[in-house]
Amino acid sequence: xxxxxxxxxxxxxxxxxxxxxxxxxxxxxxxxxxxxxxxxxxxxxxxxxxxxxxxxxxxxxxxxxxxxxxxxxxxxxxxxxxxxxxxxxxxxxxxxxxxxxxxxxxxxxxxxxxxxxxxxxxxxxxxxxxxxxxxxxxxxxxxxxxxxxxxxxxxxxxxxxxxxxxxxxxxxxxxxxxxxxxxxxxxxxxxxx
Length: 193
Hints:
By secondary structure, the chain is α/β, with parallel strands linked by helices. The protein has 6 helices and 7 strands.
């Protein structure tokens, strides 16, 4: 791992190992996900920054052959501990999408790549998006859920967590299709090459 990768892993590992949990998927977000991605039909999906595995598990329920990755060993262990042994459980990997060797992934290309509440924390967004594009199968969808700057009250201590308009522009540039849907402070992006 590079120094940047090591720093990211150390930061997230501390939070996950101390019991930190993040916004859960709700019914509205689940419906949007299903509407935009459809049924998996055993196609491969990759969840970047899988955390406790809830999104990766939802993709598996939709019929995707899912891999969840996170740079935090505690997050990956938490996700794996919830497996039910159904034969549809996701594959879990501890890796940093920004710096680790992509050949370590179980698939060369993915029909769906998801990135929920992670994009804001990526340092080099252009390089990250290049890596995602290399992993996305022809006709695939990159599903991103991110908080948008300025949607929280000025007094909210989490007010600064959203992505800026410039960061959103980097995200949506160079895709032939970019559908969005807003959920309170969040925006969902369905991006296609």
